[in-house]
């Protein structure tokens, strides 16, 4: 005849699989006498009812009895869903190795989400000083673009007749405007507000009695590019001071390298124009720019 223990054991194992996913490590197993007076150890089971802590029946349940086939075990509060004291919760975290609890940690973020339709939901770790610095750089890019557009209009005149230089400045103007738009998109991405500022009216006459219009204009452009680079470095410093690595990476990847290359190119143009003088050499310089534009 089979003993009570051999009859109950399969049912205990099946119930344990349902409750704890084949893991009895965190269950406190109690002994129960079978019909013959012998004791045996049971596992988890399915039927659950609360039990009181020792010493008082008025206190909150510390766990739950799990009964199946005459076997009584005690499940931990973490498994049954009951509230855990602070010390027990820490012990449970140490046992399970859980270091991130998304549903508890997300509560702080939910409290910070604004319910107002006029405020950004995407903004995070983006300080007002970063927002203001980006708006200032947008204004810098638009001002430089405006000057380059004026240079395009000057060199495109029929009595100036340097279409290569004119096209170079038109492309440069478009590039600066695209950079301003890139900054505007980034401002919106981080949850900031774009605030466009006034643009100064540029000069429209660029002839110079000693240097000529081409050399004078290129030297002006070199100065503007260096000023723009200084502004970008200041913007990068704001990001560093505000501990905003994402903004720092954005400025480095989208602007700083390109700015250094532009300064190098304009510096070469200034050196070449200083060599050729104001006359016939400027015409050949213009042809060179036309060939570069055609090849691009």
From TrEMBL:
Which InterPro entries has this protein been placed in? Ferritin (IPR001519), Ferritin-like (IPR012347), Ferritin-like_diiron (IPR009040), Ferritin-like_SF (IPR009078), Ferritin_CS (IPR014034), Ferritin_DPS_dom (IPR008331)
Q: Catalyses which reaction?
A: 4 Fe(2+) + O2 + 4 H(+) = 4 Fe(3+) + 2 H2O
Name the Enzyme Commission number(s) assigned to this protein.
1.16.3.1
Keywords on record: Iron, Iron storage, Metal-binding, Oxidoreductase
Looking up SUPFAM superfamilies in the UniProt record yields: Ferritin-like
Instruction: Please state every residue range assigned to the domain named Ferritin-like diiron.
Output: 124-277
Relate the protein's function as given in its record: Stores iron in a soluble, non-toxic, readily available form. Important for iron homeostasis. Iron is taken up in the ferrous form and deposited as ferric hydroxides after oxidation. Stores iron in a soluble, non-toxic, readily available form. Important for iron homeostasis. Has ferroxidase activity. Iron is taken up in the ferrous form and deposited as ferric hydroxides after oxidation.
Which family is this protein grouped under?
Belongs to the ferritin family.
Describe the protein's quaternary organization and the partners it interacts with: Oligomer of 24 subunits. There are two types of subunits: L (light) chain and H (heavy) chain. The major chain can be light or heavy, depending on the species and tissue type. The functional molecule forms a roughly spherical shell with a diameter of 12 nm and contains a central cavity into which the insoluble mineral iron core is deposited.
- What name does the UniProt record give this protein? Ferritin
């Amino acid at each position: 005849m089979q003993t009570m223990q051999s009859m109950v054991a399969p049912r205990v194992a099946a119930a344990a699989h349902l409750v704890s996913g084949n893991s009895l490590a965190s269950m406190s197993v109690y002994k129960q006498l079978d019909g013959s007076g012998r004791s045996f150890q049971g596992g988890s089971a399915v039927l659950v009812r609360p039990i009181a802590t020792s010493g008082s029946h008025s206190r909150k349940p510390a766990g739950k009895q799990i009964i199946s086939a005459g076997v009584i075990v005690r499940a931990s509060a973490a498994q049954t869903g009951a509230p855990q004291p602070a010390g027990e919760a820490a012990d449970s975290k140490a046992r399970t190795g859980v270091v991130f609890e998304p549903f508890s940690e997300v509560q702080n973020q939910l409290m910070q989400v604004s319910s107002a339709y006029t405020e950004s939901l995407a903004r995070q770790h983006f300080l007002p000083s970063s927002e203001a610095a980006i708006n200032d750089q947008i204004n810098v890019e638009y001002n430089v673009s405006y000057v380059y557009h004026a240079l395009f209009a000057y060199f495109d005149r029929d009595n100036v007749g340097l279409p290569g230089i004119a096209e170079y400045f038109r492309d440069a103007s478009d590039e600066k405007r695209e950079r301003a738009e890139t900054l505007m998109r980034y401002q919106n991405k981080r949850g900031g507000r774009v605030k466009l500022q006034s643009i100064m009216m540029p000069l429209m006459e660029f002839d110079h009695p000693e240097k000529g219009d081409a050399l004078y204009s290129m030297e002006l452009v070199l100065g503007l590019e260096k000023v723009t680079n200084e502004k970008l470095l200041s913007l990068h410093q704001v990001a560093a001071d505000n501990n905003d690595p994402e903004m720092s990476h954005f400025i480095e990847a989208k602007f700083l390298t390109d700015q250094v290359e532009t300064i190098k190119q304009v510096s070469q143009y200034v050196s070449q124009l200083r060599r050729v003088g104001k006359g016939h050499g400027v015409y050949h310089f213009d042809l060179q720019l036309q060939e570069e534009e055609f090849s691009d």
